[in-house]
Amino acid sequence: MKDILRYLTTFKFWKELFIMTIGMMIAAAAVYYFMIPSKLVLGSISGLSIVVSNLLGMAGITVKVSVVVMAINAILLIMAWILIGKEFGAKTVYTAMILGPLLEFWEKVLPYEKLIEPGMNSVMGEPLLDLLCFVLVVSISQTILFHINASTGGLDILAKIVNKYLHFDIGVSVTVAGAIICCTAFTINPFRMVVTGLVGTWMNGLAIDYFTASINKRKRVCIISKDYERLRKYIIETLNRGCSLYEVKGGYSQDVNVEIQALLTQEEFSNLMNLIRNEKIQAFITAGNVSEIYGLWNNEKHHKRIKGS
After folding, report:
1. Which of 81, 169, 224, 280 is 20 to 30 A from 204 in CA distance terms?
2. For the segment 234-256, what is each residue's pLDDT rounded down to a tens digit?
3. Which burial class, exposed, middle or buried, applies to 241 when counting CB atoms under 10 A from its CB (0-12, 13-18, 19+)?
4. Which helix (H) or strand (E) holds 221?
5. Where in the chain is the domain with CATH 3.30.70.120?
């Protein structure tokens, strides 16, 4: 209990609470302004609940869609707690709880009816434009939440499970989970609506991968220089990053040199390049983007270094 109370007073807790709230405000805006007016049907828990409710109705069992939504979300939250972790589960419970109130918030602040022009049946007036806007906005929200180990709930929980255990990219995981749910709609919906949902789900996955790569982007830098020791000290002591040293032999000159390899943030890479440029260090440099890093990587720029005795 003391550990929980201590965590509630940390800066990390309040920062992530703020980020989750902003992320869910963006998601709620996407649902309220683009999904609800145009009645978009995408791969989601709401869509799956409609299918389940209709199938139960065909079997003579009447169950409201809202009840099915609550039941499926409850099962998914338990799965998130067990399969992904307590932190992810707790954060997703919070985001799932505030979605409804945030939809009402947008309704009071700016009802979508005021944005719909005469003769149109949605905010953008075209189903495709509504779909594009919804996918773009909701993907930004999902990316923000995935980045801090949270989600909007529902489909995102399934995507996170696929991502963790099958090691797919998070965008591909969203597409796979959403496509499976979309295909269940063949039992109750016209072919055109199901295909629209599949296209929207695919676009959602692509957008998430793009935004995730942008947020997580790091630079893999390779430097060959006679002043490698100076650069090594700068990377370790000033940038507080690790690096690797390799002995390399030039194919043309046959000279033996030392190559430094390091993974840096964009800001750190810029600082390193400024040093090389300002100090006129002779070096051969290559750099490429890396979107995912696993293992011993510290996200804190000024982390403490462990010094050997």
Report:
1. 81
2. 999 999 998 999 999 888 888 89
3. buried
4. strand 218-224
5. 217-290
